[in-house]
Amino acid sequence: MKNNQNKTFFWALVFIAGGGLFLMRNFGMLDFDVPLKLISWRLIPLIVGINALLRKDYINGIIAISVAVIFYIPDFLTPVEKTQYYNLWPLLLVGVGLTILAKYMFPQQFDNYRTQLQAEDRNYVSESNIMAGSSSKFVTKDFTGGKVSCVMGGSELNLTEADLQNNATLRVFIMMGGMEMRIPKEWNVKLDVFPIMGGVEDKITKFPENVVDKSKVLVISGYVIMGGIEIKRV
């Protein structure tokens, strides 16, 4: 709940400050011009990335800001420079490779949930999909949550044979991608997700309300940007 309040407070300040500045400019109290090329969908990952950095979520913050910067750069180049810039696209492959290598060499920097016991029991999830996809099934009886990041990629989690630890939390960062979760129908899912041109669908309405076990709580928190999360109950 506290995280949700912090995010709400941050976005409220962003909109209030932006609206106030433009109102003052419209009434001649401030004199500044904003290039139209700056006002686009690319502001969304930029602001989300800054917010993630403020919350000390450095990996997802850097990813979001990088996406915004990559798509902003061509607007400030000449036609010849744009051609040269587009020729640099193989660097994306290099970046993906470096990310995979860094995750392999420094796992503690990418996953705060990893311990030797958890690695053996597989009672957590840690996935980073960049222009890729993954599919995982868990049978642990002590699922603790974890972290899933999807940038232009997807993830499938099958938890139908798993059971929850108290206060299990799954942190998600979905940008131009999606995640599908299959869970037991009695789990009590609490959503603390901030969607931006995206959404989260929990198909709990297929089952009577009395099947939900209030003691089995899974908290899903994070961001969904131009993507979606689908929760299927079986």
Describe the fold and architecture:
This protein has 234 residues and is of the alpha/beta class. The protein folds into two domains: 2-104; 108-233, no CATH class. 37% of the residues lie in helices and 30% in strands. The protein has seven helices and ten strands. It has helices spanning 2-26, 43-54, 58-72, 79-86, 90-105, 107-110, 116-121; strands at 125-130, 133-137, 143-151, 154-158, 164-175, 178-183, 188-196, 199-202, 217-225, 228-233. A five-stranded parallel beta sheet has the order 1-3-5-9-7, with helices on one face. The chain starts with a helix and ends with a strand.
Question: Key features?
Answer:
alpha/beta, 5-stranded parallel sheet
Task: Set down the secondary structure blueprint.
Layout: H1 2-26, H2 43-54, H3 58-72, H4 79-86, H5 90-105, H6 107-110, H7 116-121, E1 125-130, E2 133-137, E3 143-151, E4 154-158, E5 164-175, E6 178-183, E7 188-196, E8 199-202, E9 217-225, E10 228-233
Parallel strand pairs: 1-3, 2-4, 3-5, 4-6, 5-9, 6-10, 7-9, 8-10
